[in-house]
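ARCHIVE CARD
Drawer: 12
Card no.: 0347
Subject: one protein chain, sequence and derived structure
Cross-reference: see card 0346
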Amino acid sequence: MSKFAQLLLMSTAFAPILLTYAVVSALNDNCCHAAWFLAICAALVLLCDLLLHFAKTRLESMSYRTATVETADQEVLGLLLIYMLPLITRDLSTYNWYVWIIVSLLFCLIVAIGYGYHFNPLLVFFGYHFYKVTEVGCVSHILITQRRIYKTGETLQVGRLAEYILIEKCPPGSKARTRADANS
């Protein structure tokens, strides 16, 4: 699922931009464009939600004991400013869509190569937080979870969403069962 999850996380990150374009289109009394932007935005939001649900329920669980934990939420805030740039352009008819498409594809390529595809504003909207976590003697990973983590040494049940991205499957105290629990 790694490459497919990366592609979905990158593509669904464009939903806030499309929402912004819908607002600009509506302000320009172009309801047709606004409706298209909103429809594509809604489809991307639904796709992101489905990806998260699949990851939390279907990915194989593994234990991950944290040796270090640091927040990584602040990375998303910088991206949100970029998503608001279309509001500067009041008239979309003068907008150069070819440049926008090329810049968007370049953005996707850079994000994919730089392992930054997990910083998706939709995840923040859905209540997720990002942490840079490390197991003893292992490389660091980005952990996506819906709870706050305040201490190290916790053993988490996670699924591997992508190469360096983990998603917490069953937070402590939840009733969800792991595959190992079901087999015992």
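Annotation on reverse: Confidence is low (pLDDT under 50) at residues 175-184. Strands lie at 62-65, 68-71, 129-134, 140-145, 155-162, 165-168.
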